[in-house]
Design brief:
The chain has 137 residues and is α/β, with parallel strands linked by helices. It has one domain (21-133): Transcription Regulator spoIIAA, CATH 3.30.750. The protein contains four helices and eight strands. The chain has a six-stranded mixed sheet, with helices on both faces. Strands 4-6 form a two-stranded parallel ribbon. Helix 1 (44-58) runs parallel beside helix 2 (77-86). It starts with 16 loop residues before the first strand and ends with a helix.
């Protein structure tokens, strides 16, 4: 595996929301975590589901966002455009990738995307969470 595995737990929400493409929950550090399934191809419908659940958890207040890509996770161009146009606001966003190819694609996408909040790519969850928590006042 390209990244180290870290146990993700939440006393607030011990049962994650599960969709066809991901599991989502708010962890004990108040980080909205989306763990994308292995081999998931995110289309507009799946991105809409994730955004809807994020909006439910954020209660109109931006959160720290951690997205963990599964092995061979991919997203369609239409879904990327939808996420950029309709995604909810965040304080900061960390993306944990599972391969060098994913890192390359995410870095390329980040350079052409208009980000209204800090975004960074990581190989492991622990460093991603530390970076996210550094953005809390």
């Amino acid at each position: 595996m390209y990244y180290c595995t870290m146990i993700l737990t939440s006393k607030q929400h011990p049962n994650p929301i599960t969709t066809s493409s991901a599991e989502m929950f708010l962890d004990d550090d108040n980080i909205f975590i989306t763990k994308l399934n292995d081999n998931a191809l995110l289309r507009v419908e799946q991105v809409k589901e994730i955004i809807t659940h994020y909006q439910h958890f954020n209660a109109s207040k931006p959160k720290l966002v951690l997205t963990i890509a599964g092995t061979h996770t991919n997203i369609t161009p239409a879904a990327r455009e939808y996420a950029e146009s309709y995604g909810a606001s965040a304080i900061a966003e960390a993306i944990v990738v599972s391969s060098i190819a994913q890192r390359f694609l995410v870095n390329l996408y980040m350079h052409i995307r208009n980000n209204e909040h800090p975004v960074n790519v990581f190989n492991d969850i622990e460093n991603a969470k530390k970076w996210l928590l550094s953005h809390v006042n």
